[in-house]
Every structure is written in C-alpha cells, then in structure tokens.
Design goal:
The chain is α/β, with parallel strands linked by helices. The chain is 28% helix and 23% strand. It is built from 8 helices and 10 strands. The strands form 2 sheets. Strands 3-2-4-1-5 form a 5-stranded parallel β-sheet, sandwiched between helices. Strands 6-7-10-8-9 form a 5-stranded mixed β-sheet. GO terms for molecular function: precorrin-6Y C5,15-methyltransferase (decarboxylating) activity; protein methyltransferase activity. This is Precorrin-6Y C5,15-methyltransferase (Decarboxylating).
C-alpha cells in the first residue's frame, strides 16, 4: 500500500508547495523569487501580519489561509495539494521556522524552499558587524541556558530570539544577578519597519530595559575584559 508521503510526492512532482521566507518583515527585503511564488500561487498561507505586509502583491483572486493550529494546516494542505500553494514564514526558512514541521508531517521532497535573511542577520548588518563567532539560540517558548553558554570561551556572545516572558529585561537582569559584567546588550525591535528601534547599553544599565518590547532580537556581546576580575 502506498504511504501518504509517497502519494504526496507523486501528486506534486510538477507542483511543489512553495515555502517563502519573508525576511525581517518589510516587503522591500523579499526576494524576487519569493515575489514570483506569491504572485503565481492559487493559495497563500501566512499569519495576519505577514499577509498584511504583502497586500500590495496579493491579488483578490487568490485564496487566503490564515495560519492557526498546525494540525489543521496539514489537513488543509493535504486537501489542496494539487493546487499552487505558497506558505509565508518569517525571516530565514532555515532558522526556527515552520519548515521542519512541514517536512515531518508531509515530505521534504514536496517543499520548494525560498530562503531569506533572518532578523539577526539584518541587525548585525545595521551594526556593521559579523555574527559568525556568536552562538544563535532562542528562548521564544523554549528553554536555553544562556548563563552557561555566555561563558563559553569559544564565542564572542549570544544571539537570542525572545518572547514576552523571557524578554531582554528579564534575561539581562538574570545575567547581571549571576555576576555577568563587561557585556554589551543590543536589542533590535521591529527590524526593517518604519518604527525600527535599536537599543545599545551595557549590562550594568539593564534596568533601563524594564519596559514592554515589540518583536525583537537580543544580542549579548562580550567586552574585551569579559570574565576578567
């Protein structure tokens, strides 16, 4: 008996499901390949905010599916797999995106992935710095021991995706209370949008971060004297 994944692969040999990385958010950072996939789609799938950002290139004739429960998305994709579908994901398709879930529940072979830059790549470019010696992680709905990791001598610092609970203030307060000093804190909010805000301060001033944050990326950059008494 043919499996569901084998059936899906056979059905979409010439009609794969496109997964398009939106980049940091602003449509001007969307790739030409991504724009083509969106314009040619019969069905466009994404969050309310993502689809609002794309309203200038989405046609009224195209069907819109707002992302909700992921198990319902898989059912919807299987029911419409013979149609031209484009799924929008935030940032880089290879960095904490929807792609692994789609691959696991459908098949990697039926996905046509169009990558884009991530919010942290964008932020480092605004700072005029490279990020290859930083450790990338996320505390957005997940646990990560940033106190242990920041002390790794092989890295220059950490880059964290945060959420409302583990936000820049709570993270830096915990680091400070655990004796971490000589650390520059950089927070990029609403990156690439008109209301973009980049805050740079030293960890000793972490109390200035005691406020509400919009979508953000947190960089923890070690100073020259990090770890020295």
């Amino acid at each position: 008996m043919i499996t569901i994944k084998e059936w899906l692969v056979n059905v979409v040999q010439l009609n794969k499901i496109n997964v398009v990385g939106l980049g940091p958010g602003n449509i001007k950072y969307l790739s030409t390949a991504g724009i083509d996939c969106i314009k040619q789609a019969e069905i466009i799938i994404g969050s309310t905010r993502q689809l609002s950002d794309l309203k200038t290139i989405i046609s009224e004739k195209q069907e819109i599916y707002i992302l909700g429960k992921l198990n319902e998305l898989i059912t919807y994709l299987k029911e419409n797999v013979e149609r031209k579908i484009t799924i929008i994901v935030s940032g880089d398709t290879g960095y904490y995106s929807l792609v692994p879930y789609l691959s696991k529940n459908l098949s990697k072979n039926i996905l046509n992935i169009i990558p884009n830059i991530s919010s942290y790549q964008y932020l480092f470019s605004k700072l005029g710095e490279n990020w290859q010696n930083f450790r990338l992680a996320s505390v957005h709905g997940r646990e990560f021991d940033y106190i242990k990791n920041i002390n790794d001598e092989d890295i220059e610092g950490l880059v964290l995706l945060t959420d409302d609970i583990q936000n820049p203030y709570e993270i830096t307060k915990k680091l400070y209370n655990n004796g971490i000093r000589n650390l520059t804190v950089i927070v990029g909010e609403n990156l690439s949008y008109d209301n973009e805000k980049i805050t740079i301060l030293e960890i000793e001033d972490y109390k200035k971060l005691n406020r509400k944050f919009d979508m953000n990326v947190l960089i923890l950059k070690k100073g020259e004297n990090y770890g020295k008494k």
